[in-house]
């Protein structure tokens, strides 16, 4: 039996730094319209790569968002994380002094950590040798700085975990944050994630044959893979009681989560294991398959992911599949932030009343079987009550969060 | 508003450790029990017996190292401890952690049944994954004729969760699989993460630990950052524990080696590490339901680091009213092992408790502090014999 007190946990603040804009509202409007955040790569010299598109955040100005951090001392992923967290806390309207005095912390997900810092150091190594590594850059390299940046920016004294479970990492952090608030270990928690576009990841996915040329088309017959992307996302979690007491806007209630591991293959996903993860999430959240109105898919845009994910969903839902869409079709694969962006759009879908679309779909792949409604094109007005948010990763790391409309 | 109730203890029923003391807890016990001291001034920095690698070993590790003392696992051959293919091609981080995991599992009185493995998780602390794997992969994109002519099978190891997922894959462990990158406090943060996963019923038990490999990239980083105390070595190691509930252990006939009481971590040291450390220790004691007077041993982490060493010891002193009589300074034996340090400190404590007539008292603190403001404190109790 789970131990500890059990409190209801709600999401009252959302922060996004994305290729589709800064702030949850701007991000959500772009998603509802089915707009694309993909563009030619600028953050590194993509000369020589056959594919040169990514979901980069071109207009990121951390100095305009952050109040405490000195931007020159932190890597790009840390700045994404801290900026998203600052936006989420501002959005929540919670008193910053109250936060600093409370038992408040963060858990932030990432796939490649401060990859652009590691890459800059690697460049110094190649050009000048390791003796010439810049000590200031060395200090920025540890991945731990991503969550530490959040706590430093917000003057939080609680735990600061950087959870590096690759592309399901944000869901891992949200699950942990939910448990901390639910059991009374923490008063407030921030969950989310951050990653930066970089050369090594672009090369890696290309060599795996998983990189699309310029368009990401999950569920479509013509899909050809993922697009690498970046950004930061944060969700502010607090007990329902405290949210009601301070008259906060409640986007959604977090109902539970499930996590497991395929334990089979470093990169090939396993539908049976994913189905077990869905069941674990349902059990933890106290919902049944027929309660779920929408699935925010992992939906990377590779044929393997589509086949595996739809097959896993069928194992649990039978032939009555809820609408299932992929926002990666618009922002690309933001890696450790991806399931955080998924959770954010689930909150907005529950709060505003719509289903997020899958862009770039012209023909739903018939091989996926009947009844796949991927909400093609633009967002659809609807009134979902319960949303299921998928995050899968290299190493068979699956994590699924369940969010419900605020009662 | 937050709870301050006393936590139910978890137990360690298996321990695997690979360090510059050698492979296994026995090797560590020999070394630690030679250095545990009861006096305030009994410690020097640097290696007191931990293995300084020779030229041949450094060549096997590969790359050019800076002129600092180094500490490496002596004569480390993972393939002698692991079944299955492809061990030699894995990076050192993964090999160290896999061997520690294998030792932790093989030492269990009652091995895990298949159905147990489906309900067993992995929680590993790491700094930045294998920084060697990621920077070498990154290097390929710069030195090849075309930037994409990298080796595809070298990509997954450049991702930080590779090690934890390999532990799961090679041992069929299908529960939560978390990689906790919390810098120097990673080993303690992993314990805290695992406690929640077990207490909330996500898994029945977990392999919990942390790892750090010796490589030129991190050694140069330490050398250039000037953070190491004079004569302190750059080290490495991995320690992995089987952690479960006392009820689970009893039902399976597994004997506890130690009880894990509260584990408190946080960035409360950002405005002052000493005070932050003291607050953290105070909270851990309160959550554990043990008094400051009952603490007779502390396993310290920041021994080899400028500034941090004094902050850690002062913080413990402030919380307890003085340093406990027994101090274990793991870094003296194994060098500074960054993200692995917390787990190696726990292992060193188990090693110190190994002689049944040993002098080290039954309730101990394991403390950790990072220059990022992170502090951590775990309370551990020797299992009743």
TrEMBL record, chain B:
Molecular functions (GO terms): 3-oxoacyl-[acyl-carrier-protein] synthase activity
InterPro entries: Beta-ketoacyl_synthase, Ketoacyl_synth_N, Thiolase-like
GO biological process, one term: fatty acid biosynthetic process
UniProt entry keywords in alphabetical sequence: Transferase
Gene3D superfamilies (alphabetical): 3.40.47.10
Residue ranges of every copy of the Beta-ketoacyl synthase-like N-terminal domain listed in the record: 9-227
Protein name in UniProt: 3-oxoacyl-ACP synthase
Species: Streptosporangium carneum
């Amino acid at each position: 039996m789970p131990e500890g007190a059990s409190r209801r946990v709600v999401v009252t603040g959302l922060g996004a730094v994305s290729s589709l804009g800064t702030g949850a509202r701007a991000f959500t409007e772009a998603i509802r319209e089915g707009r694309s955040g993909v563009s030619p790569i600028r953050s590194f010299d993509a000369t020589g790569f056959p594919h040169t598109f990514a979901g980069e955040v071109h207009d990121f100005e951390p100095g305009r968002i952050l109040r405490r951090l000195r931007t020159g001392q932190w890597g790009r992923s840390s700045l994404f994380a801290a900026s998203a967290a600052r936006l989420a806390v501002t959005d929540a309207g919670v008193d910053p002094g109250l936060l600093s005095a409370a038992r408040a912390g963060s858990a932030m997900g990432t796939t490649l950590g401060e990859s652009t810092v590691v890459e800059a150091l690697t460049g110094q190594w190649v050009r000048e040798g390791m003796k010439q590594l810049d000590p200031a850059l060395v200090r920025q390299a540890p991945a731990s700085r991503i969550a530490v940046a959040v706590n430093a920016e917000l003057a939080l004294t609680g735990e600061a975990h950087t959870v590096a479970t690759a592309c399901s990492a944000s869901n891992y952090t949200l699950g942990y944050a939910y448990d901390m608030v639910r059991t009374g270990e923490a008063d407030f928690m921030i969950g989310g994630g951050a990653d930066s576009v970089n050369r090594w990841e672009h090369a890696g996915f290309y060599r795996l044959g998983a990189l699309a040329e310029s368009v990401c088309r999950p569920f479509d017959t013509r899909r050809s893979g993922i697009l690498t992307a970046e950004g930061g996302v944060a969700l502010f979690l607090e007990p329902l009681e405290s949210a009601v007491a301070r008259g906060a806007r409640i986007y959604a209630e977090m109902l539970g989560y499930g996590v497991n591991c395929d334990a089979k293959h470093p990169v090939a996903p396993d539908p049976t294991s994913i189905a077990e993860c869905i069941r674990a999430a349902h059990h933890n959240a106290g919902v049944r398959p027929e309660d779920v109105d929408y699935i925010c898919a992992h939906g990377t845009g590779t044929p393997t992911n589509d086949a595996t994910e739809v097959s896993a969903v069928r194992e649990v839902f039978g032939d009555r599949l809820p609408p299932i869409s992929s926002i990666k079709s618009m922002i690309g694969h933001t890696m450790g932030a991806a399931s955080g962006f998924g959770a954010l759009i689930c909150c907005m879908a529950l709060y505003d009343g719509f289903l997020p679309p899958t862009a770039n779909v012209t023909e739903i792949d018939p091989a996926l079987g009947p009844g796949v409604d991927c909400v093609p094109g633009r967002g659809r007005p609807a009134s979902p009550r319960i949303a299921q948010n998928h995050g899968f990763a290299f190493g068979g790391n699956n994590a699924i969060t369940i969010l419900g409309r605020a009662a | 508003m937050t709870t301050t109730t006393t936590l139910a203890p978890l137990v360690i029923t298996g321990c695997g450790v690979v360090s510059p003391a050698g492979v296994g807890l026995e090797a560590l016990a020999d070394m630690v029990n030679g250095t545990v001291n009861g006096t305030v001034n009994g410690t020097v920095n640097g290696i007191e017996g931990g293995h300084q690698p020779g030229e041949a070993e450094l060549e096997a590790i590969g790359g050019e190292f800076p002129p600092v003392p180094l500490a490496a696992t002596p004569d480390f051959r993972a393939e002698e401890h692991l079944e299955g293919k492809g061990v030699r091609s894995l990076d050192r981080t993964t090999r160290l952690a896999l061997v520690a995991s294998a030792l932790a599992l093989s030492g269990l009185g009652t091995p895990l049944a298949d159905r147990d493995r489906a309900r067993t998780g992995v929680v590993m602390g790491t700094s930045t994954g294998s920084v060697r794997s990621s920077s070498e992969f990154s290097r390929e994109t710069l030195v090849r004729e075309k930037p994409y002519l990298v080796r595809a099978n070298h990509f997954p190891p450049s991702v930080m969760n590779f090690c934890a997922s390999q532990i799961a894959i090679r041992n069929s462990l299908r529960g939560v699989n978390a990689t906790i990158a919390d810098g120097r406090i990673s080993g303690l943060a992993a314990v805290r993460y695992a406690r929640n996963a077990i207490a909330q019923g996500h898994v029945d038990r977990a392999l919990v630990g942390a790892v750090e490999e010796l490589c030129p990239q991190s050694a140069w980083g330490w050398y250039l950052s000037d953070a190491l105390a004079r004569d302190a070595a750059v080290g490495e190691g991995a320690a992995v524990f089987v952690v479960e509930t006392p009820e689970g252990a009893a039902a399976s006939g597994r004997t506890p080696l130690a009880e894990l009481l509260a584990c408190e971590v946080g960035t409360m040291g950002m405005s002052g590490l000493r005070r932050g450390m003291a607050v953290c220790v105070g909270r851990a004691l309160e959550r554990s339901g043990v008094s400051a007077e009952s603490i007779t041993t502390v396993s310290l982490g920041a021994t080899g680091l400028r500034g941090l060493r004094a902050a850690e010891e002062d913080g413990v002193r402030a919380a307890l009213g003085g340093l406990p009589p027994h101090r274990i300074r793991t870094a003296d034996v194994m060098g500074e092992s960054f993200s692995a340090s917390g787990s190696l400190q726990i292992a060193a404590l188990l090693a110190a408790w190994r002689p049944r007539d040993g002098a080290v008292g039954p309730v101990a603190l394991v403390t950790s502090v990072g220059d990022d403001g992170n502090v951590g404190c775990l309370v551990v109790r020797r299992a009743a014999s």
